[in-house]
Amino acid sequence: MLRQHGHEPLPVNPAYREVLGSDCYSKINEVPPPVDTVTVYLGKRRSDPLIDQITSAGPRRIILNPGAENDALADAARKRGIEVVEGCTLVMLTIGTF
């Protein structure tokens, strides 16, 4: 859906080399800058260890999708001047608020 709306997603997941035809990065700090938006789908237990990695990537914005809410990540991001949005990426794309 991101592609359908003119965005080029760069997947990050250490378990995959490729996702839907795109090279998959094992860590977010491997993604070439600039990083505009990080869309998080991981629950707090899995995203807590990634807080420094996510915020160090310096994205303009982090979207915490339903089930991925994480106050510690949101606080760390805001301290670095990163916008934090709690919302569904797919809904945001559909209604034009992405």
Task: Give me a quick take on this structure.
This protein has 98 residues and is of the alpha/beta class. 27% of the residues lie in helices and 16% in strands.
Summary tags:
98 residues, alpha/beta, Rossmann fold, three-stranded parallel sheet, two-stranded antiparallel ribbon, 27% helix
CATH-level-2 architecture: 3-Layer(aba) Sandwich
Major sheet summary line: 3 strands, parallel
Query: What is the tally of beta strands?
Result: 5
Please state roughly what percent of the residues sit in beta strands, choosing from under 5%, 5-15%, 15-25%, 25-35%, 35-45% or over 45%: 15-25%
Sum up the overall morphology in one term. globular
Query: What is the fold-level CATH name, i.e. the topology?
Result: Rossmann fold
Across the major sheet, the strand order is: 3-4-5
Give the ordered list of helices and strands: EEEHHEHEH
Helical residues, percent: 25-40%
Report the oligomer.
Answer: single chain
Q: Give the CATH class.
A: Alpha Beta
Which regions are unreliable across 5 or more consecutive residues at pLDDT < 50? none
C-alpha-based Rg, rounded:
13 Å
CATH superfamily: NAD(P)-binding Rossmann-like Domain
